[in-house]
Amino acid sequence: MQIINEIVELETDAGINIYNITPELTKILEASGIKTGQVLVFSRHTTTALAINEYEERLLEDIKVYLRKLAPESDKYLHNDLHLRTNIPPDEPMNAHSHLMAMTLSTSEVIPVVDGQLGLGTYQSVLFFDLDGPRKRTVFVQISGV
């Protein structure tokens, strides 16, 4: 069995943004030569997440509205009491809402590899959520199989 480790890098925009990383995963899988196995995709930040869903513009806007209802930026959060926290960088944002949104999603997804292709359904895409941009982000990809 082979194991391939790669990093996908993204420069994200301000606010909540959703990116389709399926094309990048497809390229990595094709280059690996693996025909049967799985792709693990792991979000490496506490205010980002992953999901498999449809990449459709109006649905993406619905998702953003839904997440903002779950954790409104304007609510009071203890994490945002920056003056009470220790060892924080000078540019620390007030982003408790972003952490809470990320917790409602997932940090990883596993996709089967079948005949050298991602085993996604017709309307499925691998979506990366940045809930606290703009930032430089990385996603860890591990492909295992034969």
From TrEMBL:
What is the top-level taxon of the source organism?
Answer: Bacteria
InterPro entries (alphabetical): UPF0047_YjbQ-like, YjbQ-like_sf
User: What Gene3D superfamilies does this protein's entry cite?
Assistant: YjbQ-like (2.60.120.460)
Transmembrane domains' residue ranges: none
| Name of the protein described by the UniProt record | Secondary thiamine-phosphate synthase enzyme
Q: Which organism is it from?
A: Microseira wollei NIES-4236
